[in-house]
Amino acid sequence: MRGQAIIGKHKAPTSADIVAGIVQAIREVLSRSHASAEKIGAVMIGTTHFTNAFVEARHLSRVGVIRLAAPATLSVRPLADWPPRLLDSVGGAAEIVSGGYNYDGRPIAPLDPGEIRRIAHELRARDIRAVAISSVFAPVNAAQEEAAARIVSEEMPGVLLTLSNEIGRLGLIERENATVMNSALLAMAARVMQSFRQALEELGIRAPFFVSQNDGTLLDPESMSRFPVLTFASGPTNSMRGAAFLSGASDTLVMDIGGTTADVGALVGGFPRESSIAVDIGGVRTNFRMPDILSIGLGGGSYVVSDAGTVRVGPRSVGYRLPMEALVFGGTQLTATDIAVAAGYAEVGDRDRVRHLDRKLVTAAVDEIHRLAEDALDRVKTSTTAVKLVLVGGGSILINRELKGVADMIVPSHADVANAIGAGIAQVSGEVDRIFSYDALGRDQSLQTAHAEATGRAIAAGAVAASVHVVDVEELPLQYLPGGSVRIRVKVVGDLNLGHTAV
Amino acid sequence: MKIGLEHVGDLARGAAILGTGGGGDPYIGSLMLRQAIRDHGPVDLIEVDALGDTDFVVPFAMMGAPTVLVEKLPNGNEMVAALRLMERYRNEEARAILCAEIGGINALLPLVLAARCGLSVVDGDGMGRAFPQLQMVTYHICGVPLSPMVMTDEHSNAVLFECADAADAERFGRNLVVAMGGSANICLYPMRGSDAKRSMVRSTISLALGLGRTIRESRSAGCDPFDALLSYLHTTPYYQHCRVLFEGKTVDLLRETKAGWALGSVTVEGMRTCVGRQLDIQFQNEHLVAREGESVRAIVPDLIAILDAATAEPITTEGLKYGQRVKVLGISAAPIMRSKKALEVFGPQAFGLKEPFTPLELLNPEESR
Q1: Residue B8: which domain range?
Q2: Which chain A residues are Cβ-neighbours of B74 within 8 angstroms?
Q3: What per-residue confidence (pLDDT) applies to A251?
Q4: Interface predicted TM-score (ipTM)
């Protein structure tokens, strides 16, 4: 991309060796766009590598978990709810020791340096090299986690360490889970970063590279190698943001129709609306920021079945076998794609193969396809007013008329590489999630403090200070507590500082 | 019956429905109960009639902010410490643990305590749902004194106090909770077996288990969970009056906080069978009243639960957001909760509502689904 313009693209299936795949893809892009490697300003990589590795329990390190919380929290041990397969590769050493804070920052108990030292010795003796440290209310006060980290680093030189305050939001179990996941991936992350670097060197690219994280913003290589867990589930976010970018819309619904499903989400200020539901990854509960996406069984390969006068479309689908099994491609299964061709508005395959279809059936199926799409959009909309819709994906050929509740429908070009475009949007974010006392600080002062901290984090992550703006503020009063305790969550975003390089 | 690991998920989901929007997420409670059962074995659940009239029984609960509880989990010993102090003060050993609040996380915690002490839990509770204050229980309504009350924190710091009045105890307790870091373990309303028999909302632990099991089984059988829920509730002694009051999409959400309460309302815009209509639900931690225009469709203490329209997963007031597809379920409260005395304590006027209590089955005479 040059500024807003796309000057070259290439789409290739995932390769077993991701580095080789990336090298090959970049070569293709460079040769097609006649660009030279030296002129590249930045490379952005969106990868599901870490998610897959975790879910499949491949190449994970065994992690020593130290929770600073005793005497609180003993009723739920670390890794309590993890599936056995992941426990086998990650678990084995977890302790709850003296420490932690209350919601107002008062310590529950002091840290016991001797105890931390003893655990570090034991972990070293057992050849465990990755450590996760969590503490009660670490988002309110991180001092104990940091003190414990210093001791562990002294006793275990080269330790792969993650602190819960660096990773997640309030919710001890979910945050601790994410912290352990991160430590389990650290060894692999160092290797992956190294190979990305090598790959770019091989290609003669000297520009910095970035990896996209789950909220759609970027991590620099240093951050990625420290927080690989932040790349989890960046895929759907990138697709949605890419679609929006291509269409020039920042507040819109996005519908991505593939072979089997249509995924619908909402973009607010250029970012996907987040799910409020706890997200399980590989069976482990986390509180990651995930886009709120509705999937329905409507795609190009959806079965079309006539059953006692009613026509049904999906959710069964021929999926990736569409090019063999659909009627227009010489197959025997009537699919949604065949209907779009028979109705005369899509041009793929051989129309002669669907001429015999009953007109009534075709009309009813077209109605059903549009009804399904309209229903899904209505479920994602947050107001009754008509909205903008960006339509992407190979299955977008199924839609040929105005959809109810949609004021403006855009089908952008280059929609096939929306995911890569999404990764290439150069923005970084900063977030704060902790409890403030409105009685002590006042609401304005509390919000300002949260805003300033989030902005500081965004700038530390590489944002141009002047470009940082708030994309989300949430105030959740703490129930049952007088004293005006309010949980504030602020997220800010800014443009990535790419120095003087021309992008 | 014995409550084992296989029952924890059902109990938690059922308790979330009975939480009617509040009561705290039972997830942490289910993790605690699983660990307690693994460490100490399954928990014996007994009928209230199995108690001897002179048996000493003690209700247990946690009090405080759900947001604090998801960070500062209990250690379990402080629960035992609360019970032990109560026993010492009364110079008597508890025969069984009672549940005070079946809605939300407090459905599970008495079982954690019972597992750790090797005691039974009595099948029932004092609310048949969730409520925000200590005096809002049938124990109080039936004349069981709230005091003495014990509160403990994670250090097993313990405070025992006696108040003449339940509302005073609520006020004292609220201040102590803050001093204890935002959540505390409490034992209160210590009573005899005979008191439990006349004051409990009976069989509500079985009810929660049944609700959770019904949703799980209907999902795995691919049936409509709402049909299954209504059919199940018809088989229960108190909850036969149940209706899907409304179906639609959440379109408007107002929240504010006053003196530690989460106040607000949500508007559901009708869909399918309810197209062109609108339901407003007002809440104070729990759902209080559902109105369609000027007319009341259900009102506290009857239960109003908002469930995901497809999966029947209960949605808490904190989990509400724009655009959710929901069904609103109305369930009649047990008769013991609809008495004149009960309505004074947790009827509409106790929450500052103007409308009088009218039973759900009179407001919605037809068995509409």
Answers
A1: 2-202
A2: 72-75
A3: 86
A4: 0.90
In sequence order, what are the residues at sequence separation of 6 or more whose Cβ sits closer than 8 angstroms to the Cβ of residue A456?
Answer: A430
Secondary structure (DSSP) of B18-62: HTTT-S--THHHHHHHHHHHHHH--EEEE-GGGS-TT-EEEEEEE
Using a CB-CB cut-off of 8 Å, the residues of chain B touching A77 are 35
Q: For testing the chain A interface, which of B67, B80, B131 should be mutated: the one with the most A CBs within 10 Å?
A: B67
Domain count, chain B: 2
B63, amino acid identity: M
DSSP A357: S
User: What gap in Å lies between CA B71 and CA B64, rounded to an integer?
Assistant: 12
E strand or H helix that includes residue A116: helix A113-125
- The residue among A372, A389, A364 whose CA lies nearest residue A317 is A372
Joined together, the tokens standing for residue B176 give 């102590």
Residue B306 lies in a domain: yes
Q: What local confidence, expressed as pLDDT, does residue B317 receive?
A: 87
What are the boundaries of each domain within chain A? 1-35, 57-188, 296-420, 426-495
Same domain as B296, residue B188: no
Please name the member of A80, A172, A477 whose beta carbon is closest to the beta carbon of B70: A172
Q: Is residue B357, in this structure, part of any structural domain at all?
A: no
Phi (first) and psi of residue B300, to 5 degrees: -55, 140
CB contact under 8 A, A172 and B318: no
Instruction: Identify from A104, A165, A474, A479 which residue to disrupt to test chain B contact, counting B C-beta atoms within 10 A and taking the largest count.
Output: A479
Residue A174 pLDDT:
93
**Rounded to whole angstroms, how far apart are CA atoms A152 and A241?**
40
The per-residue pLDDT for A206 is 86
CB of A68 less than 8 A from some CB of B: no
Selecting from A69, A70, A170 the residue whose C-beta is nearest the C-beta of B67 gives: A170
B6: left (phi over 0), alpha (psi -120 to 50) or beta: alpha
pLDDT greater than 80 at residue A3: no
Choose among B31, B255, B319: nearest Cβ to A81.
B31
DSSP state at residue A465: G
Contact B154 A72 (CB under 8 A): yes
Give me the architecture of the A57-188 domain, per CATH: 3-Layer(aba) Sandwich (3.40)
Do residues B181 and B258 share a domain?
Answer: no
CATH of domain A426-495: 3.30.1660
Q: Is B65 on the interface with A (CB under 8 A)?
A: yes
Candidate from A136, A276, A479 with C-beta closest to B72 = A136
